[in-house]
Design brief:
The protein is an all-alpha fold and about 180 residues long. It has two domains: about 80 residues, NADH-ubiquinone/plastoquinone oxidoreductase chain 6, subunit NuoJ (Four Helix Bundle (Hemerythrin (Met), subunit A), Up-down Bundle); about 45 residues. Helix content is about 75%, strand content about 0%. It contains eight helices and no strands. Helix 1 runs antiparallel to helix 2. It is globular.
């Protein structure tokens, strides 16, 4: 019962900080909430007894990416003093996508709803956990498994980086 309470607390804190990330107009506060959300995900990994993923979450996302985002925000003071409207012109499309995601999640939850926690959480056997990190590394670069999605994710991140640079690039005054 105690791990379930800890799970609920960490999940609520993670979700609340994630909502703050996407709703706060102050970029610095949103970045701090993003760090809290990443910390909550690391806590969930600890509860799942995935120590490697928890450590990677702490080192990579909180230790590197979040600090890089905060430095980028602090270096570009122009973005800290934005006077743009807080409303998005694509609200209808965003609402439609959010509704579809919600419908999919509700469908998946209803498919597995009669959960039985009377016997406790299922335990993974030692042979499953023994080579899991090495197997994950092999499967990410194996041409028969996940190399294409792995490479597509890297191209997507590169495109997001180029897009962020284009958006942040100051416009030259036209004469």
């Amino acid at each position: 019962m105690f791990p379930l309470i800890i799970f609920a607390i960490i999940s609520v804190l993670t979700l609340v900080s994630a909502v703050i990330v996407v709703t706060d107009r102050n970029l610095f506060h949103a970045a701090l909430a993003m760090m809290a959300s990443f910390l909550g995900v690391a806590g969930l990994y600890v509860l799942l007894e995935a120590g490697f993923l928890a450590a990677a979450q702490l080192l990579v996302y909180i230790g590197a990416i979040s600090i890089l985002v905060i430095f980028a925000i602090m270096m570009t003071r122009r973005l800290m003093q934005t006077t743009e409207s807080p409303f998005n012109s694509q609200q209808l499309g965003g609402l439609a996508v959010a509704g579809l995601v919600l419908a999919g999640l509700v469908f998946l939850i209803l498919q597995t709803w009669p959960l039985d926690f009377s016997a406790g959480a299922p335990e993974a056997s030692a042979e499953v956990l023994r080579g899991s990190v090495a197997e994950l590394g092999r499967s990410l670069v194996s041409p028969d498994q996940y190399v294409i999605p792995f490479e597509l994710a890297s191209v997507l991140l590169l495109a997001a980086l180029v897009g962020a640079i284009v958006i942040a690039w100051p416009e030259r005054e036209r004469s």
